[in-house]
């Protein structure tokens, strides 16, 4: 594969192993020629036929997104949904459509079509988010050099699914019934620390970035990192406590948290297995399959929100319901903005309980969240 100057234009020569001959394409600028060269390399690496030279003069075709979807969302909880959305986008824009022809106007036409189909704003936003990821992937692959403007529409906050105390017990009882100690350990850790699964386990997305959690990220005696020291501002008394640091986070910002007792117990178990990493022996895909089996067993198959990420929502909800301020909850969870944490604000202890008449409150005990006693005392 080579690029040669031909007067004021640039010619790319690439061997097509399928037809057994060299294909040449001329472009007006070196930038476009290099973009085509990168596109051909991308096609070869993915084992798909070389792109149509005439179509590629305007940009790679939309059909590339079908392969890109697996690279972007593979081994994540969104894999199936994102793949379905990608297929719908490819069908709408046309698989042979050059990606560079997806302009601001085409995006607006897509949005208007969604509105004609009575899609909610939240649904349109999810589709546009998928389109944005695919366009970003196309840009990083050299297929396009610019991404069109993608609008975002105001949407109401959806329901937040979290586990009740009964559901927590049911999850652990089921894993115990299956004699799946690895799943128990992983669940205890996630339900204690509230981290994302991909911050502790290997996923397809983070597989090229090193292992997400190592023993050197965990305090002694479980790991090799030193414990942290808390100094009481009033008494000056020092207290040592174990910590865990998550480095491969969603927003790229590492965060260090106290290592809570259930998480300590989980790591004690995985360390006893001789794993060289805290969760070396269980990938996210393996854990997700274990979770699905448990979910089916307890009759939660129809609950689309009953996924491993619900453990993170549960930690956040429990923190807020116990009266912890939202700023600390944001720091613990690693949210980029307080607006994300505010989704849980309605769960905070409220003074509305005092509005219940005394004659009623003496005989009526309002149902608490998470199966706990009420937090409105």
Low-confidence stretches are 359-377
CATH class placement of the largest domain: Mainly Alpha
Rg on CA atoms, Å: 26 Å
Helix-residue proportion = 40-55%
Largest sheet: 3 strands, antiparallel
CATH topology value of the largest domain: hpI Integrase, Chain A
Q: Which shape, going by the Cα principal axes?
A: globular
Which second-level CATH architecture of the largest domain applies? Orthogonal Bundle
| CATH superfamily caption of the largest domain | Intergrase catalytic core
Total DSSP E strands: 7
Strand content: 5-15%
Count of folded domains = 3
Average pLDDT taken over every residue:
85
Q: What series of H and E elements makes up the topology?
A: EEEHHHHHHHHEEEEHHHHHH
Q: What is the overall number of helices?
A: 14
Give the terminus-to-terminus CA distance. Answer: 73 Å
Strand order of the largest sheet: 1-2-3
SS-derived structural category = mainly alpha
Can you walk through the features of this model?
This protein is mainly α. It has three domains: 1-57; 60-156, DNA polymerase, domain 1, CATH 1.10.150; 165-347, Orthogonal Bundle (hpI Integrase, Chain A), CATH 1.10.443. It has helices spanning 30-45, 53-56, 64-73, 79-93, 104-116, 121-140, 165-177, 181-193, 261-272, 284-297, 310-321, 326-333, 338-341, 358-361; strands spanning 2-6, 9-16, 21-27, 228-231, 238-241, 243-246, 255-258. Strands 1-2-3 form a three-stranded antiparallel sheet, with helices on one face. A hairpin with an 8-residue loop joins β6 (243-246) and β7. The protein is globular, with a radius of gyration of 26 Å.
């Amino acid at each position: 594969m080579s690029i040669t100057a031909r007067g004021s234009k640039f010619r790319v020569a690439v061997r097509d192993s399928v037809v057994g001959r060299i294909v040449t394409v001329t472009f007006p600028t070196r930038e476009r020629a290099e973009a085509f060269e990168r596109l051909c390399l991308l096609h070869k690496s993915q084992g798909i036929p070389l792109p149509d030279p005439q179509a590629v003069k305007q940009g790679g075709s939309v059909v590339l997104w079908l392969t890109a979807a697996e690279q972007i969302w593979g081994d994540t909880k969104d894999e199936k949904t994102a793949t379905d959305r990608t297929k719908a986008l490819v069908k709408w824009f046309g698989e042979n459509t050059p990606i560079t022809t997806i302009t601001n106007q085409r995006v607006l036409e897509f949005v208007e079509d969604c509105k004609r189909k009575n899609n909610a704003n939240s649904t349109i936003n999810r589709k546009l988010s998928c389109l944005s990821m695919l366009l970003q992937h196309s840009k990083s692959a050299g297929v396009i050099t610019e991404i069109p403007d993608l609008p975002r529409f105001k949407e109401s906050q959806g329901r937040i699914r979290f586990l009740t105390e009964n559901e927590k017990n049911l999850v652990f009882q089921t894993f115990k019934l299956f004699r799946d100690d690895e799943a128990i350990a992983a669940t205890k850790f996630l339900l204690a620390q509230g981290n994302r699964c991909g911050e502790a386990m290997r996923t397809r997305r983070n597989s090229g970035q090193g292992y997400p959690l190592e023993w050197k990220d965990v305090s002694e005696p479980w790991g090799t990192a030193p414990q942290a020291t808390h100094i009481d501002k009033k008494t000056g008394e020092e207290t040592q406590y174990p910590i865990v640091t998550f480095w491969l986070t969603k927003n790229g910002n590492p965060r260090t948290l106290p290592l809570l007792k259930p998480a300590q117990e989980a790591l004690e178990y995985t360390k006893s297995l001789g794993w060289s990493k805290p969760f070396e022996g269980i990938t996210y895909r393996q854990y997700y399959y274990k979770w699905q089996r448990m979910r089916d067993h307890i009759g939660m198959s129809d609950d689309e929100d009953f996924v491993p990420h619900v453990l993170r929502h549960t930690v956040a909800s429990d923190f807020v319901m116990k009266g912890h301020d939202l700023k600390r909850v944001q720091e613990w969870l690693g949210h980029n903005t307080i607006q994300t944490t505010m989704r849980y604000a309605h769960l905070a202890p409220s003074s509305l309980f005092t509005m219940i008449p005394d004659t009623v409150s003496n005989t009526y005990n309002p149902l608490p969240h998470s199966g706990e006693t009420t937090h409105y005392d």
